Amino acid sequence: MSTSYTEAQFGSFFDFPAGEDLAYLFANLHEDHAPAPASVPVAFGAMADPRKRAAGYQLGEGEASGAKRQRSPTSENSGGSNEGDQENAMSEVTAAAAAGVGRGGGRRLWVKERDRAWWDRMSSPACPEDEFRRAFRMSRATFEAVCEELGAAVAKEDTMLRAAIPVRQRVAVCIWRLATGEPLRLVSKRFGLGISTCHKLVLEVCAAIKAVLMPKAVQWPESQEAAADVAAVFHATSGVPNVVGAMYTTHIPIIAPKANVAAYYNRRHTDRNQKTSYSITVQGVVDAAGAFTDVCIGWPGSMSDAEVLERSALYAQRGAAGLLQGQWVVGGAGYPLMDWLLVPYTHQNMTWAQHVFNEKVDGVRSVARDAFQRLKARWGCLQRRTEVKLQDLPVVLGACCVLHNICERAGEAVDPDNAFQLFDDDMVAENPVRSQAAAAARDSIAHNLLHSGGSGSGAGFLLK
User: What does each C-alpha distance from 309 to 128, 209, 332, 401 come to in angstroms?
Assistant: First the structure.
């Protein structure tokens, strides 16, 4: 025979006034035992039976109310059986705790099993070098060197719940994502990690690359000796003297942002591709070997090359500050001619000397253009619109430039299968000449290039 109780009667069993929320009862039963998880349903069922729990409490004399003394005979006669059920339930809880789900053993953690066969094979020493190089755009030795440099910055400690992801796998997730531009769901399946975990790893490793490696890998030739070495290589190949860098600006496609969308609208790419395009800019200066010595990342794609230059640290901290006096940075027609920036002639009806000068300057500028072409060929994430948020893109693009320098200086060639054709529209600066002294120096260089057979030798090229 079953027995039912009113809320007042049920609450009186535990000295609760009528109307009080009885959920507190089940949240605090047996405080000396942690509640068993959902994987132990029998224990929870026994502990949740109010009649069985009520029979287990010993009430002191004088504490019981009239409602307590009016319990049915069935409830009183079944007390022994209820006590036995309670003991069985508590023994199951104790067994669950001993198995590691109670307070002493910690909470059991359920982790989804994922396939890691691909990464296990790639990380194995038995993996062929060519296969590893195709996957990560660099040799195993270069990859290990990057991991060693970043180890202290990206390593995590094991916890009581799980082992930390190794440094090599963290770096590999980031480099693979940059190299292929694969969607995160595919990166997740390949490495046997969660999608959100992969997204977090990419941003963390990119931030570490920017913080740890960029100051070492992207360096301007500050000293006179370093500048002279760069200038000597450029002079030998082009005949243009005192060149310490070649500059180029490219565009990285992005998804239309939610705010200030007009600023990122790229009209030139839209007109050429007949498809609405949005982009951000990357301005870079490279040395004679094609390694970046200065980068400016993140200005909206609607800006011209000259506008991006005027907002860069190169312009404010070096050019305008007079630190490039007597040196040239060579750029395209989209930049203005300045005391430190050498650009080609853009007017009509040029002389023969001016034609020769433009050819030589274009040869210098091609070093920067080819460097950007290799940059985009290595890191496929730069070739298409990415899932990375706009505010995180400068860090990701900066990491690509750093890794490009590491590969270039390690002699890592770009796989011909990954070749990429660079398309950036040449523009002409609205104010092409901003310094008459620079215009006179350019005419002198053009004259000497013509009459010296392209060697460009002779004094008088330095600005006074």
Answer: 44, 25, 12, 18
